[in-house]
Amino acid sequence: MEVFRRNGSLEITEIDPFLAELLRQIPPSTNPESIPAAEQRLFTSPAAPAEKELCAEWKLYVEPELRRHFQSATEVVSDDLRQLDQDEKSLANATLCIPHEHADAWLNTLNQARLAIAAKFDFTEAELSDHYHSPIGSRRDLSLFQVNFYGFLQEFILREMECSPPSSPNE
Amino acid sequence: MFTLPEIRSALETPAIAEETTTSESLDLPWNVIVHNDPVNLMSYVTMVFQRVFGYPREKAEMHMLEVHRKGRSILWTGVKERGELFVQQLHGYLLLATIERTQ
Known about the structure:
The complex is a heterodimer.
Chain A: E1 2-6, E2 9-15, H1 17-24, H2 26-29, H3 36-42, H4 52-81, E3 94-99, H5 103-121, H6 125-129, H7 139-161
Antiparallel strand pairs in A: 1-2, 2-3
Helix pairs in contact in A: 3-5, 4-5, 5-7
Chain B: H1 4-12, H2 24-27, E1 30-35, H3 42-53, H4 57-70, E2 72-78, H5 80-92, E3 96-101
């Protein structure tokens, strides 16, 4: 797999079937509804429990807005990932183009996915620092690889964005 | 018109019409705090601090390292409403952020 910048887009080329599947798993990995730990991590409290009024207002007004913001980013990524909807044989040479204006949505969605997976498996800081952990083994090993692979993509996108920073997502 | 004894008496023992206290919650500024999360990338956190607070890269990195090493960093101090908006933006980027009253 190679990643580089071309004509204002980020390109990931020579995606093999395994990595293509990991990429396809980004949007479903962001869904924390069935995993309380992930839900808790994605929607954390804005203040100590003693600030009851502030926390209640947040739950009522801000949290739905955050959900919409996350969902909207995930939809952008899902649309981009349709480029990988090919039959398995041709996936060896698949290429994924991420338009520069989608970079923020990708960063956000990758972060949602990484946080949700890490919360689900309760990875330790030491595990998360093990960037050479083999994906072969248990479901936990594969998920750790997934978190690190998504982190690698985030790093790449961030580096490319430094050339021409896009606007803030909440503006 | 007040008589001289009345004025003297008032000066010696001034009457307090109503005792009032200032609500500290209205006066004290609030801190916006970001807490450590080993999942969020250091480069990502730095970028978020630059975007949300408009900090130069060096200042954003300094706060990011403080979060990483000490577990938390006070990013901003000021009025509650503005602080809440910052926390909302930080949550939009999925950072662990809270707003707290200053001591």
